[in-house]
């Protein structure tokens, strides 16, 4: 495998690869009462101050490795951050830990809010 192909594979994995969900897809899954675990990997300040998706669980990216036991394996896990970069890294970390049903919210909270979807600050 060439260096360029390895770099493409790494970038694909770091961004969530084919395991991305759009804001509209996530909203539809939530509306259908799909069993989900929404994992927000931003800082506590971003989570509270900028708002978050209702029902999301906050585990900052830097703490994820030590808190993996809090992330269930019996449902789809959707990683979320501001733009999709940190959540892409979280998604890759989950995949390495054996989470097969993990997805990354493409565009993060920026895409969620741009789509006019609700946020909460509770």
What labels would you give this structure?
alpha/beta, 5 strands, 122 residues, globular, Oxidized Rhodanese, domain 1, five-stranded parallel β-sheet
Secondary structure elements and their pairing?
Elements (H helix, E strand, L loop, with lengths): L2 H12 L5 E2 L1 H9 L4 E5 L3 H6 L7 E2 L17 E5 L4 H12 L5 E4 L2 H7 L8
Parallel strand pairs: 1-5, 2-3, 2-4, 4-5
How does this structure look, described?
This protein is of the alpha/beta class. The mean pLDDT is 90. It is globular, with a radius of gyration of 14 Å. It has one domain: Oxidized Rhodanese, domain 1, CATH 3.40.250.10. The protein contains five helices and five strands; from the N terminus they run H-E-H-E-H-E-E-H-E-H.
Summarize the structure.
This protein has 122 residues and is an alpha/beta fold.
**Distance linking N and C termini:** 48 Å
Question: By helix and strand content, what is the structural category?
Answer: alpha/beta
Radius of gyration (Å): 14 Å
Overall domain count: 1
List the total number of helices: 5
Mean pLDDT: 90
- Choose one word for the global shape: globular
